[in-house]
From TrEMBL:
Name used for this protein in its record: RND family efflux transporter, MFP subunit
One term under GO cellular component: efflux pump complex
Source species, domain of life: Bacteria
A molecular function (GO) term: efflux transmembrane transporter activity
Segments forming domain YknX-like C-terminal permuted SH3-like: 306-373
Matches recorded under NCBIfam families: RND_mfp
Organism lineage: Bacteria, Bacillati, Bacillota, Clostridia, Eubacteriales
Family: Belongs to the membrane fusion protein (MFP) (TC 8.A.1) family.
PROSITE patterns on file: PROKAR_LIPOPROTEIN
Chain ranges of the CusB-like beta-barrel domain: 226-300
Multidrug resistance protein MdtA-like barrel-sandwich hybrid domain boundaries: 66-218
Length: 385
């Protein structure tokens, strides 16, 4: 086959292949070139000037300002508990009763010893009177030179022995022993040392308790306190009698009014912190001793500061980021903006740089978007725009 014929055949093959491709292309449906972008619904707020006051937060647990631990004054087994937790009690009211059976036997022995000592005292008194008369007679005889010096001295010794006071001392000792047993029996009735509310009962019927066991806690729930530990950088902010906000979120989302009642002037033992005590009224009894509380103390303030909601801030690799809203070709788009922040009050944060008054920032849904995301803005009333 000549070269000319070979070239012609190749040209015809090329034409056929190109035609086939064009035919296939013309018969196939056209593929979409892009997918429609979905908009993300977000909430936005406007950066604006407002007065803002920063705060420092501390955590701790509430405790009754006046709280007393009840300890028995004798060792015995509990046979009854007469109160329940939360019950109001008065000073001297019986809280629980201890077994006094062993002490009752001691009481009978002590009573018998007192009776015996007193009987001996009566007998001694009779002898003393007789010895006194004998001594007087002997003395008269001695003065009349009718008896000897020895007999006079013997009569006096007999009288002095009976009049030594040893019998009276034995009676006093027996009575003291009886009083001690009676006192121990009295201790088997465990009473309230102060008035207040039974905050906790730490024992059960049948338990054997001693003088080192706390069996109950009595507190005055109308005034609670919380102790916080403050570092040296913040201790100067603490002012005696200053009002602070205390949040007990387990019972109320709103703050309770507290007062700084004491500020330690020395560090706590084995610590680099200063104990500060805050007291708060709890007249309605809503908060309970032992509940977790957060104390918020004003630290500083700025007037007419540019602020945005704290919820719009997203920490990102050591910087604070917000997403502002910009309009591009009639569409709302997110724009990533790094901002420098100042103080915050828990709801709003001061913006030192990165935004200007009137800028709109995403407050809800900002974790679902990125730079350039298409947005649908939802108003506070729930309408979309």
């Amino acid at each position: 086959m000549t070269n000319k014929k070979r070239v012609n055949i190749l040209q015809w093959v090329t034409v056929i292949l190109v035609g086939s491709l064009l035919l296939i292309s013309g018969c196939s449906p056209q593929m979409p070139t892009s997918v429609a972008e979905s908009a993300i619904t977000v909430n936005v707020e406007t950066a604006e000037s407002r007065d803002i006051y920063g705060s420092i937060s501390y955590n701790g647990r509430l405790k009754a300002s006046r709280e007393v631990q009840v300890l028995p004054q004798t060792s015995a087994r509990i046979i009854s508990i007469n109160v329940s937790e939360g019950q109001e009690v008065g000073t001297g009211q019986t809280l629980m009763t201890l077994d006094s059976s062993s002490l009752q036997a001691s009481l009978k022995r002590a009573e018998a010893q007192v009776a015996s000592a007193k009987a001996n005292q009566v007998n001694n008194q009779i002898k003393l009177e007789a010895a006194g008369k004998s001594y007087e007679r002997t003395k008269s005889l001695y003065d009349a030179e009718a008896t000897t010096q020895v007999e006079l001295e013997n009569a006096k010794d007999a009288y002095d022995l009976l009049n030594s006071g040893s019998v009276e001392a034995a009676v006093a000792e027996a009575e003291a022993a009886l009083l001690a047993v009676q006192e121990q029996i009295g201790y088997t009735s465990v009473t309230a040392p102060v008035s207040g509310s039974i905050g906790r009962i730490d024992a059960s019927v049948g338990d054997y308790v001693n003088t080192s066991n706390t069996v109950a806690v009595i507190s005055d729930p109308q005034e609670l306190k919380i102790e916080i530990m403050v570092g040296e950088s913040d201790i100067s902010i603490m002012k005696l009698n200053a009002k602070v906000d205390v949040y007990v979120k387990s019972v109320n989302p709103d703050s309770l009014s507290g007062t700084i009642s004491s500020i330690a002037s020395v560090l706590a033992a084995n610590s680099s912190m200063y104990p500060v005590t805050i007291t708060l009224d709890n007249v309605d009894g809503e908060a309970k001793s032992g509940m977790y509380a957060e104390v918020s103390i004003a630290a500083s303030g700025v007037q007419s500061a540019l602020c945005i909601p704290l919820s719009s801030i997203i920490p990102d690799n050591g910087v604070n980021v917000v997403y502002s809203v910009t309009e591009m070709n009639g569409e709302m788009r997110a724009a990533r903006v790094e901002v420098k922040t100042g103080i915050n009050d828990g709801d709003y944060v001061q913006i030192l740089s990165g935004l200007k008054a009137g800028d709109k920032v995403v407050t809800l849904g900002n974790t679902l978007i990125s730079d350039g995301s298409l947005l649908t803005i939802q108003s506070k009333e729930g309408e979309q725009s």
